[in-house]
Structure formats: structure tokens, C-alpha cells
Amino acid sequence: MLVLVTAATGLISLPLLLRDMRSSTERHLLAARRILTEVPLIDGHNDFPWNARRFVYNKLSGVNLTSDLRHKRPWNESVWSHTDLVRLKEGMVGAQFWSAYVPCGAQYLDAVQIALEQMDTVKRLVAKYPTHTAFARTADDIVAIHAGGRLASLLGVEGGHAIGSSLSVLRSLHALGARYLTLTHTCSTPWSVFSADDANSPRDAGLSPMLQRVVREMNRLGMLVDLSHASTQTVRDALAVSRAPLMFSHSAAHALCNISRNVPDFILQQLALQGGIVMISFYNRFLTCGDTATLDDVIAHIERVRKMAGVDHVGLGAGYDGINLVPEGLSDPSSYPALVARLLSRPGWSEDDVKRLVGHNFLRVLRRVEQVRDHLSSEEAVSLDELKPMSRHRLSNNCTYDIRL
After folding, report:
1. Is 31 inside any structural domain?
2. What average pLDDT does this structure show over 285-295?
3. Which of 32, 234, 262, 402 is the Cys-Cys partner for 340 at CB 3.0 to 4.6 Å?
4. What is the pTM of this model?
5. Into how many domains does the chain fold?
């Protein structure tokens, strides 16, 4: 018989050791599933609405989300597709932020229309599958929907250009259910700078008046300011203005992958001082700066944020359906219990810590945003008159109506 020699116990059979290892893994997986029934796992970012636009032209009648899309064309032909209601349920996802993504090429053109169409796709998705999901606007909604055994569906808008430099549009998006706005994407706006353009941030010009208005109006509305994709200077400016905690909906730690898209340690520390959260992306190129990554690389980023910001300031924002390279062991949302189980097996991770990571941290952030909203409820909305100076910063084009004509 094969044996292993250990100082503590002498001779242990290899089959017995392997059985104990399997037993430990199964025990952690059972604990993970129990935790996910008690606390909603909240994923900060999923781009399924954009794939619905690309693959079926927003015609949800042409897709059955209660079937496994890994076996359905055109979804199974794309490395960008990871999501359906089957895999979300298998992964015990309690709440999903669906991204109303607006490509940068639409800036100054039909960005607002595209944002509205993506939001409409989410609303129709929820209406089509009422036994599987319900629309959420508040932290209490998330908790109640999860307790009822359904997925809480929330809306985020990705790309500050989606508001067309108009706070009226921002307010309208919020009224339709958007609960965060990502200030930039892979392009700058007239009032915010994206991460790869950090060298052009106006460090000597002071805070952008429009950025101040956007952040303060989002505070007044109870809308989360999402800093993923933003330049370091735009992040610092938003942190300086906001009265509510801020978020990174799908980012990773700069110390482990040195790209402009990731969050530096000093920003992690500043974010924690304001009570914010970084929701870790599963995109390989954010995790390892390469094409390959593993579940353990995701955990390394989680633990880096925990080290620099604290366990109260980290969450999960995979970015499924918007990424084409996913870690081994986290191929789609059905893999979440495996991630939770692995964390439970690591030293320093209590069940309470894991509950904070998967959902309690985000719920705390959203509740604080709602408290700030209630405190500011008596303040008036910013008037259109204050936004007229922004017109001189916009590109000249024939796609806008000039009131002076």
C-alpha cells in the first residue's frame, strides 16, 4: 500500500488522505451554498444586454433564457457569451447589475438612445421571466427578492457619454431605474477622463464644474458613482466631491496587474475612507496582464483589495458577457459557489468575511447612498441654465438642435 510519512501522525495511506481532501472540499462547497441562500451574491456588472443587441437585435422573443445558451446559436459560437438564467441560478447569484453599455463611437450621436434601448431590454427581460427575476431599485428590494428565491435585476449605465452632458438625461435614466453611472468608458467625455488618457487629465485646471454637478446630482438622486474606466485624476476629483460612497463595478488591483484600468493602492485606501467598494473583475487581462488566469488569480486580487482597503470594501463584478478571456475555474456565473468554497478553505476567511464579500458590503454601500439621498432630498435639481456653458466644449456636428435658430 502507498503511504505518506508525516511528522505528526506517522504513516497515512494516500487513499485516506485523498478521501479527507475530497471531504474537506465538499464541506466547503456545502457551506458556500448555505451562505448564498442566506446572503444575496451581488454581481456588479454583466453585459448581456449588449449581446442581446448584437446577437438577436434586442428581440428577446428569439431567445429562451431559461435554456442553457451554451447549446444555442449564436450564443454558443461566441467567446463573449457566458450568461443565461440557468447558469445564474446554478451559480446562486442573488442580484445582478445588468449593464446598459454605450460604445464610445456613439458619443455626440445616438448615445442616449442606445442607453435607453439597453435599459428597455433589461425591463423586458424581467417582464418575460417573472418567476425567475424581479426588478430592484433599492437595497431592501434586493434582500426581499433574494429571500423570495428570485434573482434581483438592477440597472447600471456604462459610459458617462450616455447622458449627453445633460443632467436632465441623468435624472431620466435614474427615474427609469438606473442605479449607477460609470463615469467613462474607453473614451473621455467633455467632463471626465478615461483611464488610458490619464496623462491628459487637467491636473492644474481644478475640478471640472460639470463633473462636480454630475457627482452631486447623483448623490441627490441616490445613484452610485462608478469609477471603473476612469482616470486616476477623475477618480480623485470624484472622491473629493462625493458625499456618498463610490464604487468600482468591475475592476482589479493595480499592484498585481500594472495597467491603467486597475485601481492603485492609494486609491483603494482613499476609497475605503469614504466607505466605498471595489467589485473584482474576472477579465484575464485585468488579473494577470495576460491571456490566461485562474480562480486563484481572482482570489489574489480580492485579497489585495482586502489588505489595502479592508474586508468591508471588496465585492464581485465579473463582467461576464463583456469579456472574452475568463479564468480557469470561473467560466461563467455557475462557477460562483466554487469561488466561495475556495475562499472558505483559505486562512483568514471566516464565514462572516465571505458574507461581506458576496453581498453585505454592497448592501451597506447602497444603503449609505440612499441615506445621503434622503438627507439631500430637500435640495433642488440643477437647472438647465447652469449647463449652457458646456455647449462650447462639444464637438461641432449636425446632430443637435440649436435653440437660437
Report:
1. no
2. 98
3. 32
4. 0.90
5. 1
